[in-house]
Amino acid sequence: MFGIVGGSGMVVNMIVTVVMNKANGGTQNAQDILFPFPGTEFNFRFTTLVWIVAFLVANLYNFLLNRHWTFGKGHKAPFWHEFWPFLLVGSVAAAAGIFIKLTFTNPTSPLYLPEPLWHEDAGIHSREYWGQLFTIVITMPINFIVNKLWTFRAVRSRHHQRTVQPTSVT
Q1: 131 pLDDT band (50/70/90 cuts)?
Q2: Taking a C-beta distance cutoff of 8 angstroms, is the pair 152, 66 a contact?
Q3: How far is CA 104 from CA 55, 111, 154, 161, in A?
Q4: Which of 56, 58, 55, 46 has its CA nearest to residue 120?
Q5: Other Cβ atoms within 10 Å of 16 Cβ, number
Q6: Is residue 83 within 8 Å of 63, Cβ to Cβ?
Q7: Contact in structure between 99 and 139 (CB atoms under 8 Å)
Q8: Which residues make beta-bridge pairs with 44?
Q9: I need a labelling partner for 148 at 20 to 30 A (CA). Which of 33, 71, 85, 103 fits?
Q10: How far apart are the first and last CA of the chain?
Q11: 56 by DSSP, 3-state: which?
Q12: CB-based burial, 78-108: b 16+ in 10 Å, e otherwise
């Protein structure tokens, strides 16, 4: 079930990615600089904004589906007690994902997706879309393992232990 949720979350992520890129004039503008980081040679680019927004939307979607469907059985902790760890785990994977995606989409990277297979002239061949997709696939196992063991097992277990009333022996 986690895989189905993750797969559908990947679709949500890609929809946000496509919509944001189309709103920005297409993937050929994905490397547009939004602002420079002062005192460095680095910049915050549109592609990074897309990664962050798509992650946040898909993360919330995945959390809601996992909370109610994948890990819906048993005693649940309050919403925010489970959401913050889920967001934290996803954020760590997303932070790593920013750098992974940039290795696929930055022309100076040794892992830059090469032409003629990948280019920005047609959507299906877009480095932006494939870089996003490859990065999601790479980071997904991290999310699964840590969320299964921590967010939906340990957090719920701790909450359940705190809320269970000890029985009195007479």
Answers
A1: very high
A2: yes
A3: 17, 5, 35, 45
A4: 46
A5: 20
A6: yes
A7: no
A8: 35
A9: 103
A10: 44
A11: helix
A12: eeeebbebbbebbeebbeebeebbbbbbbee
- In this predicted structure, the answer to whether residue 158 has a pLDDT above a threshold of 90 is no
Query: Across residues 57-82, what is the average pLDDT?
Result: 84
CB 3 within 8 A of CB 141: no
pLDDT digits (tens, 9 = 90+) for 16-41: 999 999 999 999 999 999 999 999 99
Question: Is the sign of the CA dihedral 159, 146, 7, 126 positive or negative?
Answer: positive
For helices 127-146 and 46-65, give the axis angle rounded to 10 degrees: 40
Could you identify the residue written with the tokens 């877009």? 126
In sequence order, what are the residues at sequence separation of 6 or more whose Cβ sits closer than 8 angstroms to the Cβ of residue 64? none
